[in-house]
Amino acid sequence: MFEQKRNEGEALNKFAEKPLLRYPDFNEAIKTLEITYGMSAMNERACLITGEPGVGKSTIAKTVNYHLNKGYDPKHPRSVYVKLDSPKTIREFTEQMSNGLITLRRKVSKTELKELLRKAFINQGIEVLVLDEIQTLLPAAKESALARDMADAIKHLMEELKLSVFMFGVEDASRLYDAAKYNKFTIGQLVSRSNATVRLKTFKNDDVWIKVLKYMEKHTCLPTEISLSDPKIADLVYDATKGNFRDLNNLIGACHTLYDLRKVESLSVKTLALAYNHENSKEITSNPFIEVNAQGIGWVA
Protein backbone atom coordinates (compact mmCIF):
# COMPACT_ATOMS: atom_id res chain seq x y z
CA MET A 1 0.00 0.00 0.00
CA PHE A 2 2.90 2.34 0.76
CA GLU A 3 6.48 2.85 -0.34
CA GLN A 4 9.15 0.95 1.59
CA LYS A 5 10.24 4.29 3.00
CA ARG A 6 7.08 5.80 4.43
CA ASN A 7 6.52 9.49 3.99
CA GLU A 8 5.89 11.42 7.18
CA GLY A 9 2.19 11.33 8.00
CA GLU A 10 1.35 9.34 4.86
CA ALA A 11 -1.00 6.79 6.43
CA LEU A 12 -2.55 9.33 8.80
CA ASN A 13 -3.22 11.77 5.95
CA LYS A 14 -4.91 9.08 3.88
CA PHE A 15 -7.02 8.07 6.87
CA ALA A 16 -8.02 11.70 7.44
CA GLU A 17 -9.41 11.89 3.88
CA LYS A 18 -12.13 9.31 4.58
CA PRO A 19 -15.72 10.33 3.70
CA LEU A 20 -18.21 11.44 6.35
CA LEU A 21 -19.63 8.65 8.47
CA ARG A 22 -23.33 8.15 7.78
CA TYR A 23 -25.58 6.78 10.53
CA PRO A 24 -29.03 7.80 11.84
CA ASP A 25 -27.97 10.76 14.00
CA PHE A 26 -25.58 12.14 11.39
CA ASN A 27 -28.16 11.56 8.66
CA GLU A 28 -30.80 13.47 10.64
CA ALA A 29 -28.40 16.36 11.16
CA ILE A 30 -27.41 16.46 7.47
CA LYS A 31 -31.05 16.26 6.36
CA THR A 32 -32.02 19.10 8.72
CA LEU A 33 -29.17 21.24 7.39
CA GLU A 34 -30.25 20.50 3.81
CA ILE A 35 -33.86 21.50 4.57
CA THR A 36 -32.67 24.64 6.35
CA TYR A 37 -30.49 25.60 3.39
CA GLY A 38 -33.21 24.79 0.85
CA MET A 39 -35.77 27.01 2.56
CA SER A 40 -33.49 29.99 3.11
CA ALA A 41 -34.21 31.39 -0.36
CA MET A 42 -37.80 31.99 0.78
CA ASN A 43 -37.20 32.81 4.42
CA GLU A 44 -34.12 33.26 6.58
CA ARG A 45 -33.36 30.05 8.43
CA ALA A 46 -31.17 28.89 11.29
CA CYS A 47 -30.30 25.45 12.57
CA LEU A 48 -28.80 24.51 15.93
CA ILE A 49 -26.96 21.19 16.36
CA THR A 50 -25.81 20.31 19.87
CA GLY A 51 -24.35 17.32 21.66
CA GLU A 52 -21.77 16.16 24.16
CA PRO A 53 -18.10 16.84 23.40
CA GLY A 54 -16.74 14.62 20.64
CA VAL A 55 -19.97 13.28 19.13
CA GLY A 56 -19.15 14.62 15.66
CA LYS A 57 -20.51 18.19 15.55
CA SER A 58 -17.33 19.79 14.19
CA THR A 59 -16.93 16.88 11.76
CA ILE A 60 -20.36 17.63 10.30
CA ALA A 61 -19.76 21.40 10.34
CA LYS A 62 -16.49 21.16 8.40
CA THR A 63 -17.83 18.53 6.01
CA VAL A 64 -20.95 20.53 5.16
CA ASN A 65 -18.85 23.65 4.64
CA TYR A 66 -16.46 21.71 2.37
CA HIS A 67 -19.23 20.27 0.20
CA LEU A 68 -21.06 23.59 -0.11
CA ASN A 69 -17.84 25.16 -1.41
CA LYS A 70 -16.82 22.29 -3.68
CA GLY A 71 -16.30 23.63 -7.19
CA TYR A 72 -16.41 27.26 -6.04
CA ASP A 73 -13.59 29.79 -6.23
CA PRO A 74 -11.94 29.87 -2.76
CA LYS A 75 -11.99 33.67 -2.99
CA HIS A 76 -15.77 33.57 -3.45
CA PRO A 77 -17.04 30.75 -1.23
CA ARG A 78 -20.70 29.87 -0.94
CA SER A 79 -20.24 28.97 2.73
CA VAL A 80 -18.05 30.41 5.50
CA TYR A 81 -16.90 28.31 8.46
CA VAL A 82 -16.13 30.21 11.67
CA LYS A 83 -14.77 28.56 14.80
CA LEU A 84 -15.67 30.96 17.58
CA ASP A 85 -13.12 31.70 20.30
CA SER A 86 -15.01 33.00 23.34
CA PRO A 87 -15.72 36.56 22.13
CA LYS A 88 -16.34 38.85 25.07
CA THR A 89 -17.61 41.87 23.14
CA ILE A 90 -19.75 42.39 20.06
CA ARG A 91 -16.64 43.76 18.32
CA GLU A 92 -14.68 40.55 19.03
CA PHE A 93 -17.66 38.54 17.79
CA THR A 94 -17.81 40.54 14.54
CA GLU A 95 -14.03 40.35 14.08
CA GLN A 96 -14.07 36.57 14.42
CA MET A 97 -16.89 36.26 11.86
CA SER A 98 -15.02 38.55 9.46
CA ASN A 99 -11.67 36.75 9.73
CA GLY A 100 -10.51 35.89 6.22
CA LEU A 101 -13.34 37.83 4.57
CA ILE A 102 -12.04 41.36 4.98
CA THR A 103 -8.60 42.90 5.44
CA LEU A 104 -8.38 45.84 7.82
CA ARG A 105 -5.57 48.27 7.06
CA ARG A 106 -6.65 50.74 9.73
CA LYS A 107 -8.58 50.73 12.95
CA VAL A 108 -12.32 50.96 12.32
CA SER A 109 -15.33 51.53 14.55
CA LYS A 110 -17.72 48.77 15.52
CA THR A 111 -20.32 50.19 13.14
CA GLU A 112 -17.84 50.33 10.24
CA LEU A 113 -16.72 46.77 10.95
CA LYS A 114 -20.30 45.46 10.83
CA GLU A 115 -20.89 47.29 7.54
CA LEU A 116 -17.68 45.90 6.04
CA LEU A 117 -18.76 42.41 7.05
CA ARG A 118 -22.21 42.91 5.50
CA LYS A 119 -20.66 44.09 2.22
CA ALA A 120 -18.21 41.17 2.22
CA PHE A 121 -21.08 38.69 2.48
CA ILE A 122 -22.95 40.45 -0.35
CA ASN A 123 -19.96 40.91 -2.67
CA GLN A 124 -18.77 37.33 -2.27
CA GLY A 125 -22.25 35.87 -2.63
CA ILE A 126 -22.09 33.97 0.66
CA GLU A 127 -25.24 31.96 1.38
CA VAL A 128 -24.32 29.97 4.50
CA LEU A 129 -22.65 30.95 7.77
CA VAL A 130 -21.36 27.96 9.77
CA LEU A 131 -20.70 28.88 13.41
CA ASP A 132 -18.82 26.22 15.38
CA GLU A 133 -18.26 26.28 19.15
CA ILE A 134 -21.37 28.43 19.57
CA GLN A 135 -21.32 27.54 23.28
CA THR A 136 -18.45 30.01 23.72
CA LEU A 137 -21.06 32.76 23.37
CA LEU A 138 -23.16 31.44 26.24
CA PRO A 139 -21.12 32.84 29.15
CA ALA A 140 -21.69 36.25 27.60
CA ALA A 141 -25.43 35.64 27.96
CA LYS A 142 -25.06 36.64 31.63
CA GLU A 143 -25.05 40.14 30.21
CA SER A 144 -28.44 40.40 28.53
CA ALA A 145 -27.48 43.44 26.42
CA LEU A 146 -24.39 41.70 25.00
CA ALA A 147 -26.32 38.49 24.40
CA ARG A 148 -28.99 40.45 22.55
CA ASP A 149 -26.36 42.22 20.44
CA MET A 150 -24.79 38.92 19.39
CA ALA A 151 -28.14 37.28 18.61
CA ASP A 152 -29.26 40.40 16.75
CA ALA A 153 -26.04 40.43 14.69
CA ILE A 154 -26.79 36.91 13.47
CA LYS A 155 -30.47 37.72 12.96
CA HIS A 156 -29.60 40.84 10.95
CA LEU A 157 -27.38 38.90 8.56
CA MET A 158 -30.09 36.25 8.17
CA GLU A 159 -32.88 38.71 7.40
CA GLU A 160 -31.03 41.12 5.16
CA LEU A 161 -28.97 38.60 3.21
CA LYS A 162 -31.30 35.56 3.38
CA LEU A 163 -28.48 33.54 4.93
CA SER A 164 -28.74 30.06 6.32
CA VAL A 165 -26.99 29.99 9.69
CA PHE A 166 -25.75 26.61 10.93
CA MET A 167 -24.78 26.66 14.61
CA PHE A 168 -22.90 23.86 16.38
CA GLY A 169 -22.47 23.80 20.15
CA VAL A 170 -21.45 21.57 23.03
CA GLU A 171 -23.92 20.34 25.62
CA ASP A 172 -22.16 20.08 28.97
CA ALA A 173 -24.34 20.18 32.07
CA SER A 174 -21.33 20.74 34.34
CA ARG A 175 -20.68 24.03 32.55
CA LEU A 176 -24.37 24.88 32.16
CA TYR A 177 -24.20 24.43 28.38
CA ASP A 178 -27.71 23.03 28.17
CA ALA A 179 -30.84 23.56 26.08
CA ALA A 180 -32.18 26.22 28.45
CA LYS A 181 -28.95 28.22 28.17
CA TYR A 182 -28.99 27.98 24.37
CA ASN A 183 -32.61 29.14 24.27
CA LYS A 184 -31.78 32.04 26.57
CA PHE A 185 -28.98 33.11 24.24
CA THR A 186 -31.10 33.00 21.11
CA ILE A 187 -33.90 34.88 22.93
CA GLY A 188 -36.40 33.02 20.76
CA GLN A 189 -35.12 34.82 17.67
CA LEU A 190 -33.18 32.09 15.91
CA VAL A 191 -33.98 28.51 16.87
CA SER A 192 -37.71 29.03 17.43
CA ARG A 193 -37.98 30.72 14.03
CA SER A 194 -36.46 27.77 12.23
CA ASN A 195 -37.81 24.86 14.26
CA ALA A 196 -34.52 23.14 13.42
CA THR A 197 -32.68 21.71 16.40
CA VAL A 198 -30.80 18.39 16.40
CA ARG A 199 -29.11 16.77 19.40
CA LEU A 200 -26.30 14.30 18.67
CA LYS A 201 -25.56 11.56 21.20
CA THR A 202 -22.61 9.33 22.03
CA PHE A 203 -22.85 5.82 20.60
CA LYS A 204 -24.25 2.90 22.54
CA ASN A 205 -22.49 -0.46 22.39
CA ASP A 206 -24.96 -1.95 19.93
CA ASP A 207 -25.37 -2.73 16.22
CA VAL A 208 -24.74 0.91 15.28
CA TRP A 209 -21.38 0.78 17.09
CA ILE A 210 -20.41 -2.26 15.00
CA LYS A 211 -21.34 -0.32 11.83
CA VAL A 212 -19.16 2.59 12.99
CA LEU A 213 -16.23 0.22 13.52
CA LYS A 214 -16.77 -1.34 10.08
CA TYR A 215 -16.65 2.19 8.66
CA MET A 216 -13.29 2.68 10.42
CA GLU A 217 -12.06 -0.69 9.12
CA LYS A 218 -13.00 0.22 5.57
CA HIS A 219 -10.95 3.40 5.69
CA THR A 220 -7.96 2.11 7.68
CA CYS A 221 -4.72 2.69 5.75
CA LEU A 222 -2.34 0.16 7.30
CA PRO A 223 -2.10 -3.65 7.29
CA THR A 224 -4.46 -5.29 9.79
CA GLU A 225 -4.19 -8.37 11.99
CA ILE A 226 -7.55 -7.88 13.70
CA SER A 227 -11.09 -6.86 12.85
CA LEU A 228 -12.34 -3.84 14.80
CA SER A 229 -15.89 -5.14 14.44
CA ASP A 230 -15.05 -8.47 16.06
CA PRO A 231 -17.30 -8.50 19.19
CA LYS A 232 -14.41 -8.80 21.66
CA ILE A 233 -12.32 -6.10 19.97
CA ALA A 234 -15.43 -3.91 19.60
CA ASP A 235 -16.02 -4.14 23.37
CA LEU A 236 -12.41 -3.19 24.11
CA VAL A 237 -12.55 -0.21 21.75
CA TYR A 238 -15.83 0.87 23.33
CA ASP A 239 -14.24 0.69 26.81
CA ALA A 240 -11.40 2.86 25.50
CA THR A 241 -13.61 5.51 23.87
CA LYS A 242 -16.92 5.27 25.76
CA GLY A 243 -18.70 5.51 22.40
CA ASN A 244 -17.27 8.96 21.69
CA PHE A 245 -16.74 9.54 17.95
CA ARG A 246 -13.84 11.97 18.36
CA ASP A 247 -12.04 9.66 20.81
CA LEU A 248 -12.53 6.74 18.40
CA ASN A 249 -11.23 8.77 15.48
CA ASN A 250 -8.24 9.91 17.55
CA LEU A 251 -7.49 6.34 18.68
CA ILE A 252 -7.47 4.94 15.14
CA GLY A 253 -5.63 8.04 13.94
CA ALA A 254 -2.93 7.39 16.57
CA CYS A 255 -2.55 3.85 15.19
CA HIS A 256 -1.76 5.42 11.81
CA THR A 257 0.70 7.84 13.41
CA LEU A 258 2.57 4.96 15.07
CA TYR A 259 2.64 3.14 11.73
CA ASP A 260 4.04 6.21 9.99
CA LEU A 261 6.73 6.43 12.69
CA ARG A 262 7.57 2.73 12.11
CA LYS A 263 6.76 1.90 15.72
CA VAL A 264 4.22 -0.69 14.57
CA GLU A 265 3.76 -2.65 11.35
CA SER A 266 0.03 -3.36 11.44
CA LEU A 267 -3.25 -2.77 13.26
CA SER A 268 -3.31 -5.17 16.21
CA VAL A 269 -4.31 -5.20 19.87
CA LYS A 270 -0.76 -4.14 20.68
CA THR A 271 -1.09 -1.20 18.27
CA LEU A 272 -4.40 -0.19 19.90
CA ALA A 273 -2.76 -0.40 23.33
CA LEU A 274 0.16 1.79 22.25
CA ALA A 275 -2.21 4.21 20.51
CA TYR A 276 -4.37 4.46 23.62
CA ASN A 277 -1.33 5.42 25.71
CA HIS A 278 -0.18 7.76 22.94
CA GLU A 279 -3.52 9.60 23.12
CA ASN A 280 -4.21 9.45 26.84
CA SER A 281 -0.84 9.15 28.65
CA LYS A 282 -2.58 7.03 31.30
CA GLU A 283 -1.34 4.31 33.62
CA ILE A 284 -1.01 0.81 32.17
CA THR A 285 -3.68 -0.49 34.53
CA SER A 286 -6.29 1.81 32.93
CA ASN A 287 -5.49 0.63 29.40
CA PRO A 288 -8.28 -1.74 28.27
CA PHE A 289 -5.99 -3.39 25.71
CA ILE A 290 -3.43 -4.50 28.33
CA GLU A 291 -3.65 -7.40 30.78
CA VAL A 292 -1.78 -7.31 34.06
CA ASN A 293 -1.54 -10.65 35.85
CA ALA A 294 0.84 -12.85 37.83
CA GLN A 295 2.87 -13.53 34.69
CA GLY A 296 3.37 -9.82 34.05
CA ILE A 297 2.03 -7.45 31.42
CA GLY A 298 0.65 -8.52 28.06
CA TRP A 299 -1.76 -7.58 25.32
CA VAL A 300 -5.36 -8.73 25.67
CA ALA A 301 -5.71 -11.96 23.65
Write the layout of secondary structure elements.
Blueprint: H1 10-16, H2 24-39, E1 45-51, H3 57-69, E2 79-83, H4 90-98, H5 110-123, E3 128-132, H6 144-161, E4 164-170, H7 179-186, H8 191-194, E5 197-200, H9 207-218, H10 231-241, H11 245-260, H12 269-280, E6 290-293, E7 296-299
Parallel strand pairs: 1-4, 1-5, 2-3, 3-4
Antiparallel strand pairs: 6-7
H/E topology pattern: HHEHEHHEHEHHEHHHHEE
**Helicity, as a percent range:** 40-55%
CATH fold assignment of the largest domain: Rossmann fold
Q: Looking across the biggest beta sheet, what order are the strands in?
A: 2-3-4-1-5
Instruction: Please work out how many helical segments DSSP would assign.
Output: 12
Principal-axes geometry comes out as elongated
Q: What's the mean pLDDT score?
A: 80
Q: Structural class, judged by helices and strands? A: alpha/beta
Number of domains: 2
Radius of gyration: 22 Å
Please summarize what this structure is.
This protein is of the alpha/beta class and 301 residues long. The chain has helices spanning 10-16, 24-39, 57-69, 90-98, 110-123, 144-161, 179-186, 191-194, 207-218, 231-241, 245-260, 269-280, and strands at residues 45-51, 79-83, 128-132, 164-170, 197-200, 290-293, 296-299.
